[in-house]
Write a structure and sequence with these properties.
By secondary structure, the chain is an alpha/beta fold. The protein has 10 helices and 13 strands. The longest helix has 46 residues.
Length: 358
């Protein structure tokens, strides 16, 4: 399947990407410390029922001061509940009325303030929900306008979480990472780390557009299915010709498909894990060192930096760092290759450093 065959897919309208901001509330989630609207509603309903209960108790204690529509004095508990609910909701059918001075005084001093509190709770809940929806829409609008040079992580499973952890350890801000997934639990876990999330299948171009792939600096494809990874990589490369795309596949025979689809780098997860398992049986200390290198928070770490002016022309073997390779014009040159003997301006060094050290 060639890239040219997919171009027609991107000429059709993408309704999700073109949707107004308020329609994206619930699809795009921007981390916030504000309580959930449903929790706010539940809390306000609890207060509303508490107000009703207090009013029922007050009316019941003075139940002999009321009469029903037939003129009979006194009320049962059901009558008290009925009278309280229709009074606090301002319906007021008039079939039960206070006839004694004490009952009328209770209505003036107690029930009227409770009625106002009840209305404030209900109206306040409606306004709070509407305000929260509007606030989220404004945040999404601002996010879509300012989103630039970020990293899109497609799939927030085990590999996706590890990739995000490495990005955060590399001092990339959480606000510069957007996670795309269709698993609610994965999105919830990503949001808990302060990441912006987009709910949907990344195999759809409009979902990728909504995540800002067209303006992204890099795309990480960390799906568990190789065919989905190929399709997402094709879509991402078509939408973002200049972005760096890193993808993972389970089987090594699919590596060339990812490369042909536009991936800059491909990591074979099953083969890599198999090699580590094999090494662990023979030289477990080597595996321990490799895990240390891949763990960004402790021990050793693989880092990259540009060549300083005073290092140009020199050999990377003479530097204080343990240099593994030289990146020159986007191509990695291993340190033992002849082309790496003399550093050039614009080169970047891959080296091993202690975490926490410059």
């Amino acid at each position: 399947m060639g890239r040219s065959r997919l171009r027609n897919r991107f000429r059709v309208d993408d309704p999700l990407d073109e949707s107004p901001d308020h329609a994206l509330v619930g699809i795009v989630s921007i981390p916030d410390h504000v309580a959930s609207p449903w929790r706010i509603i539940a809390k306000r309903l609890w207060f509303a029922f508490l107000v009703i209960a207090i009013a029922v108790i007050v009316v019941y204690l003075d139940r002999d001061g009321y009469q029903d529509g037939n003129g009979e004095p006194g009320m049962s508990l059901i009558d008290c509940i009925y009278y309280t609910t229709v009074s606090l909701s301002t319906v007021g059918y008039g079939d039960i009325t206070p006839v004694t001075e004490s009952a009328r005084l209770v209505n003036i001093v107690i029930l009227t303030p409770l009625r106002l509190i009840f209305l404030i709770i209900l109206v306040g809940t409606t306004l709070a929900v509407l305000t929260e929806q509007s606030r989220q829409a404004l945040k999404i609008q601002r996010w879509r306008t300012t989103l630039r040079n970020h990293t899109v992580v497609v799939g927030y499973g085990t590999k996706g979480r590890s990739a995000v952890a490495a990005l955060l350890a590399d001092e990339i801000s959480a606000s510069e990472i957007v996670v795309v997934d269709n698993d609610p639990q994965a999105l919830k876990a990503a949001a808990a780390r302060g990441l912006v999330t987009v709910s949907g299948s990344a195999t759809k171009s409009d979902v990728l557009k909504l995540a800002g792939v067209t303006r992204a600096r890099a795309v990480v494809v960390s799906l568990s299915s190789d065919d989905s990874s190929v399709l997402v990589t094709l879509s991402a490369r078509e939408l973002a010709p200049n972005a760096k795309i890193v993808a993972t596949v389970r089987e090594s025979e699919n590596t060339h498909l990812l490369k042909q689809s536009g991936a800059d780098s491909v990591v074979v997860s099953a083969e890599t894990a198999g090699r580590l398992l094999g090494l662990a049986t023979v030289t477990p200390t080597v595996v321990g060192m490799m895990e240390d290198l891949l763990t960004p928070d402790e021990g050793f770490s693989i880092a990259e930096r540009r060549v300083e002016d005073n290092e140009v022309g020199g050999s990377p073997r003479h530097l204080k760092e343990m240099v593994l390779g030289v990146v020159r014009k986007g191509t990695l040159i291993k340190v033992n290759e002849p082309d790496a003997d003399a550093l050039e301006s614009g080169d970047r060094l891959l080296y091993i450093r202690m975490v926490g050290n410059d």
